[in-house]
Design goal:
With 393 residues, this protein is of the alpha+beta class. It has helices at residues 25-28, 33-39, 43-52, 55-70, 74-77, 178-214, 216-231, 234-244, 251-281, 285-292, 297-305, 310-333, 345-349, 355-360, 368-388, and strands at 98-101, 104-118, 123-135, 137-147, 151-159.
């Protein structure tokens, strides 16, 4: 007996059976809640989960976020005004913070000091007076300042005692508090890296994108320019470009001039990374589809190609920021970068250019500590972002 269904007559319409029930993914492949969570997660969420496993990168990110938040309120955080001079305490060493006095808990305080002059070496010696307890004040009134140069204020997070002193990082040759100047200097040293990398980011994406997408003679010229720039030693090139800036420029113009110099010298590596990526991605089918639909080159590069590896670019830019901070510090240390009254970590380190100063007053090298910590933090953060850029690996 024939059990097969009879074939439809020639020319008769085929019968289709379509289920109107909603598609249930669980019925196709049973998944645990954990598997479903990963399967339905977006790429950003997958990147965050992978980045979160990199503990050093997370700690570095929190540290850098705290620093960049601090530069917004550095006038409030600094114990003294940027230009406050304590002429009775020139080259005063850092003071130690104590909690107990004569076996009793007093709270954070420092002992007062008395200065004596060594007539043989003309060195100032400071002796702690154990009977002079100066309690540290918090959220207090202190030196007046202009918040971002606009709003008058006198509130500080921490202040010395009334008629007391608080030099946690010592003072310089003019009696200025080194810690306060380090906090103010962070605003310049940290922002110059962000502004510089923004300028470098723009040049690298535009030039590298056009070279990788179009190729040909433009790509050849760009590659030769990049090779010439990368073959020149960085320090002499920095010095030459910094020496071009007129000495009559205002500090703000010098700041932007140094930023442009650092951006002009750092775009080459990013441009090559963009070019190599676009050389591979321009052969994809979706690029051909966009070309057939009449999309312009700028739209294809900016809308379809660049977002495909933006995470990689962000990681590359994060690793490049420390180089710009070091560049500004080196130029300012050599006297060819930023100049007073602008304060940066590099300018603070110019106080320690003399060997005799380092021998007698080693605390003037303390501005080197935040430079090291920030560079290490950016490197760890860049490593974490680079690993998280490919969450499927």
């Amino acid at each position: 007996m024939n059990t097969h269904s009879p074939l439809p007559a020639p020319g008769a319409p085929l019968q289709h059976y379509v289920s109107t029930a909603p598609f249930d993914l669980q019925s196709v492949e049973a998944m645990t809640p954990e598997q479903s969570k990963v399967f339905q997660a977006s790429q950003l969420r997958l990147m965050w989960w992978k980045f979160r496993k990199h503990r050093l990168a997370v700690i570095s990110g929190i540290f850098l976020a705290a620093l960049y938040f601090g530069i917004l309120i550095c006038e409030f955080l600094a114990p003294y005004n940027l230009h406050t001079r304590n002429m009775d305490y020139i080259y005063s060493p850092p003071q130690r913070v104590h909690l107990f006095h004569d076996g009793q808990f007093v709270g954070p305080f420092v002992y007062g000091r008395q200065m004596t002059l060594d007539m043989d070496t003309l060195k100032r010696n400071y002796i702690e007076k154990k009977d002079d307890v100066q309690r540290i004040r918090f959220f207090c009134k202190g030196d007046s300042y202009q918040f971002w140069g606009l709003i008058e204020g006198d509130r500080h997070f921490v202040c010395p005692a009334e008629n007391g002193q608080l030099f946690l990082a010592g003072t310089d040759r003019l009696g200025r508090d080194v810690l306060s100047r380090m906090i103010y200097g962070a605003r310049i040293s940290l922002t110059i890296g962000l502004v510089g990398i923004s300028f470098s980011f723009l040049l690298g994406i535009v030039i590298g994108g056009l070279a990788g997408y179009h190729g040909g003679i433009f790509d050849l010229i760009v590659q030769r320019i990049i090779e010439v720039l990368q073959s020149i030693p960085s320090i002499p090139l920095w010095l030459a470009l910094a020496a071009i800036m007129p000495i009559t420029w205002s500090p703000i113009l010098i700041y932007f001039g140094i930023t442009v110099i650092l951006g002009l010298l750092d775009w080459t590596g990013l441009a090559r990374a963009v070019r190599s990526k676009l050389l591979a991605l321009r052969e994809e089918d979706y690029v051909l589809a966009a070309q057939l639909m009449g999309a312009r080159s700028s739209r294809i590069i900016g809308r379809h190609l660049i977002p495909g590896f933006m995470s990689h670019l962000i990681a590359t830019a994060t690793i490049s920021i420390p180089g710009m901070i070091l560049g500004e510090t080196a130029l300012s240390f050599l006297g060819l970068g930023l100049r007073a009254p602008i304060t940066s970590w590099g300018i603070l380190l110019t106080e320690a250019r003399s060997v005799s100063v380092i021998a007698f007053y080693p605390w003037l090298l303390l501005p080197m500590l935040p430079v090291i910590l920030v560079i290490m933090a950016f490197n760890f953060l860049g490593d974490g972002l680079r690993d998280a850029a490919d969450p499927y690996k």
